[in-house]
Amino acid sequence: MDAGMDAAPSRESQVGRRVFIGMLAAGGAGILWGAKVQDWLERMLAPITARDGTGLSSFLPVGRFRIYSVTGDLPHRSAQAYRLTVGGLVEHPTTLTLADLK
Questions:
Q1: pLDDT tens-digit profile of 19-77?
Q2: C-alpha distance from residue 22 to each of 15, 16, 27, 29, 33 (Å)
Q3: Number of C-alpha atoms within 13 angstroms, CB side, residue 28?
């Protein structure tokens, strides 16, 4: 290579119009058909998860949100014990019960 010539930019670092349009199309397809694919997967995996003796199917987030917890369990609050406290930089701090929120 000549010392006076600039090296061409690396093709690995460029994101061209085709890549951008492809990613945009993939995102749009996910929005349009994502729920239908999720429902189909849930129907197809239902017989497998019903007979799973290992418990490994619980790692599949089919039909529910995946929750990560470092405690291993979520705290349980009864409807009577639930309180939501609104405080901090508000004019009127207050505490609401579950009945207040409904």
A1: 999 999 999 999 999 888 888 888 888 888 778 778 777 777 666 666 677 777 777 88
A2: 11, 10, 9, 10, 16
A3: 6
Helix (H, G, I), strand (E, B) or coil at 83: strand
- Domain ranges (residues) in the chain: 17-62+78-101
46 to 13, 35, 43, 55, 91: CA distances (angstroms): 43, 16, 5, 13, 51
- In angstroms, the CA 63 to CA 57 distance is 12
Question: What's the residue count for the chain?
Answer: 102
The DSSP bridge pattern shows strands 94-97 and 83-86 to be antiparallel
> Residue 62's closest CA among 47, 73, 74?
47
